[in-house]
Amino acid sequence: MAVAVLIGLLLNLNRDEWFVAITFGVVIDADHLLAAPRYISDNGLGAIMRPSWDDASGLPWKSLFHEPVGAFFVVPLAIGWRYMVPFIFWGTHVAADELQMATLGQSAIIESVLLSVVVAGILYITYSRWSALSQEPSFQRFLTQSWAQARTWFSRLGASIRVP
Ligand SMILES: [Zn+2]
Known about the structure:
It is built from seven helices and no strands. 67% of the residues lie in helices and 0% in strands.
C-alpha cells in the first residue's frame, strides 16, 4: 500500500488512475481471502501470522494474478492508460511479493527498512508540495493540517456510508 502511494504521488495520478492503481497494486491481495478458510482449517488461526501461507500442501493460496503469468491478463488492460498504470502497480506488487518470498528469513528487517524509506519518501513529497503553497511552512503545521484533513475525509466517508 505504502509503495503504491509513493509511486502514485511520483506520477501525479488523477482520481481515476488512483482507483486503478490501488485496485491493481493493493486489492489484488483479496485473493488470499478465498484461500483463507481452507488454510486456517488445515493450519490453525495462528498460522495467519506466518511469513508465507505456502504450507507445502500444494494447494493454492494465491491466484494466477499473483504470478508473472498474470501479465497476459494485465498488459492488455493496461494499454491506453497513461504510464500503463494497471501494469506498473500490478508489476510492483508481484515484484514485492517475489522479493518477500526470496528473502523470507530476513523479511522482518527488509520490510521494516523498506517501509521506513517509503514512508519517509511519502512525507517528503507531500510536505514539499504543501510547503510550496503555504505562507509559513513548518513541519508541525503540515502535520496538524494533514491530521485535520484526514479527520474531515473520514467523517465524510462515514457519513456517506451511513444509510439515511
Ligand atoms: Zn500479494
